[in-house]
């Protein structure tokens, strides 16, 4: 799977951690400097996956790491303890470099004309509505990250599917909730905005909890659907 953590003798744990740090930085920086433009953010995510060689699973998102961890637990994956520990470490790295990426983005673009963006709920909608919207599309996004690699041998194609899902979600609900789907992005951008410019935390709790819950659901659903992968492959052979 795309989001899976694969170990080999040629790939060290430190290289995987660096991959997650760099990829998350690129993603959050792109969100900051483009004001969250989905036509810029999604290709940047895809480019970050390719640039880091998918050696860590190209997660760059705590919600995806949570989905991978839940899937590993429910499917009783080999070397489960190490996978859980690695997922937790990846989440810490992603949140840390999300802050760093947002901090650098602030100094690159922040002016009176174009201040650093932040995520918040539209005035026309309730926090509960935005929460559900973020949960739904994060579930779709993280679910694609876990399952896409199982249905194609190409990591590049699987990465493109995930990146496209980001754009689809942003175009669908961006005007309601901001279209975050990533705790590292929401936490990084909103906390840097608060730390430097002051003011409220802009519902940072929503952009931490909603995507995280979506990651849990994605792990559950992907485990359920991948359980029937062999049956699906047999049906394909029979009908095609």
From TrEMBL:
One of its GO terms (cellular component) is plasma membrane. The chain crosses the membrane at residues 46-72, 84-109, 204-228. Keywords: Cell membrane, Membrane, Transmembrane, Transmembrane helix, Transport. GO terms for molecular function: water channel activity. The keyword Transport applies. It comes from Stentor coeruleus. The keyword Ion transport does not apply. PROSITE patterns: MIP. This is Aquaporin. It is found in: Cell membrane. Belongs to the MIP/aquaporin (TC 1.A.8) family. InterPro entries: Aquaporin-like, Aquaporin_transptr, MIP, MIP_CS. It is a multi-pass membrane protein. SUPFAM superfamilies: Aquaporin-like. Pfam families: MIP.
């Amino acid at each position: 799977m795309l989001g899976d953590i694969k170990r080999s003798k040629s790939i060290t744990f430190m290289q995987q951690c660096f991959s997650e740090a760099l990829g998350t930085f690129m993603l959050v920086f792109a969100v900051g400097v483009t004001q969250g433009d989905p036509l810029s953010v999604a290709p940047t995510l895809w480019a970050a996956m390719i640039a880091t060689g998918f050696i860590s699973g190209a997660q760059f998102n705590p919600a995806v790491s949570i989905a991978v961890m839940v899937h590993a637990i429910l499917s009783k994956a080999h070397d489960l303890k190490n996978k859980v520990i690695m997922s937790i470490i990846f989440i810490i790295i992603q949140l840390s470099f999300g802050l760093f990426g947002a901090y650098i983005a602030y100094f690159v673009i922040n002016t009176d004309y174009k201040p650093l963006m932040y995520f918040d709920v539209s005035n026309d909608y309730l926090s509960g509505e935005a929460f559900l919207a973020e949960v739904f599309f994060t579930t779709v996004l993280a679910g694609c990250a876990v399952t896409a690699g199982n249905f194609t041998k190409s990591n590049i194609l699987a990465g493109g599917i995930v990146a496209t899902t980001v754009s689809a979600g942003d175009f669908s609900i961006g005007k309601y909730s901001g279209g975050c789907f990533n705790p590292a992005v929401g936490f990084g951008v909103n906390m840097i905005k608060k730390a430097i410019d002051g003011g409220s935390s802009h519902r940072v709790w929503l952009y931490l909890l909603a995507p995280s819950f979506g990651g849990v659901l994605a792990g559950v659903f992907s485990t359920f659907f991948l359980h029937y992968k062999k049956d699906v492959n047999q049906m394909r052979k029979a009908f095609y």
